[in-house]
Amino acid sequence: MLKRLATVAACLSVLALAACGNEGDGDASDTAKDPAASTSESTSESPSGETTSCDYPADGQDPARDVDAPSADAPAEGTVTAVMTTNFGDITLTMDRADAPCTINSFVSLSEQGFYDDTPCPRIGDQEGFGILQCGDPTGTGSGGAGYTVADELTGDETYGAGTIAMANTGAPDTNGSQFFLVFRDSQFPPSYTTFGTIDDAGLEVIDAIAKEGNDGAHPAGGGAPNKAVTIEKVTIG
Questions:
Q1: Domains of the chain
Q2: Cα separation of 222 and 215, whole Å?
Q3: Is residue 39 scored above 70 in pLDDT?
Q4: With CB atoms 3.0 to 4.6 Å apart as the test, which of 52, 156, 187, 188 could cross-link to 76 if both were Cys?
Q5: Least confident of 19-28, 55-64, 68-77
Q6: pLDDT digits over 89-119, tens only?
Q7: H/E run at residue 196
Q8: Which residues contact residue 90 at a Cβ distance below 8 angstroms, ignoring those fewer than 6 apart?
Q9: 3-state class of 109 per DSSP?
């Protein structure tokens, strides 16, 4: 169970996206809820045949970039690698489709369509019990997405140790979109965020280098924009 440290509890709102619709168009900290809280495909290992059906309903917002929703027929086996090329260096992600097939299907689809190319990672949290770099919104505001939602894929036993990749959400169930966070320090969150892969050691060193540059501390829950801008130059699948 999440330790009830005041600093950690406050930091949870960093992972929540801005509320949908017309409730606000500013930074996510203005409207985020506290969480109790085309699509061609290539993989590093070809799926062995098992699939699952996924639903990607519209979220009521215009996508930050013009992209198609993923195929509803998602591979449920096989390993996918993605190289996230940033201005600080490469971060290699490894994803097992069996763990979160619908989430990974969406991430691969968006990556293949160039949704994440030339996008900022606008927020970093770097303190005790909390170390994440949040990315995946081309607008850089924390409120942008791909125009559709992805259902939670949770077991209730999720943990967020260093090297975990997980989806950000609005604080409500089944509100994942395009935004995700990279955990570079063991972090204490409730099991409310779909985990869908791991970060290689070299990638963790890259994120550590980002963290060492510091942040502006502008987010009321802790952390803020990196002092040195972080840009995903491209994401390469396979």
A1: 6-19+26-38+71-237 (2.40.100.10)
A2: 10
A3: no
A4: 52
A5: 19-28
A6: 999 999 999 999 999 999 999 999 999 999 9
A7: strand 195-199
A8: 83, 84, 202, 203, 206
A9: helix
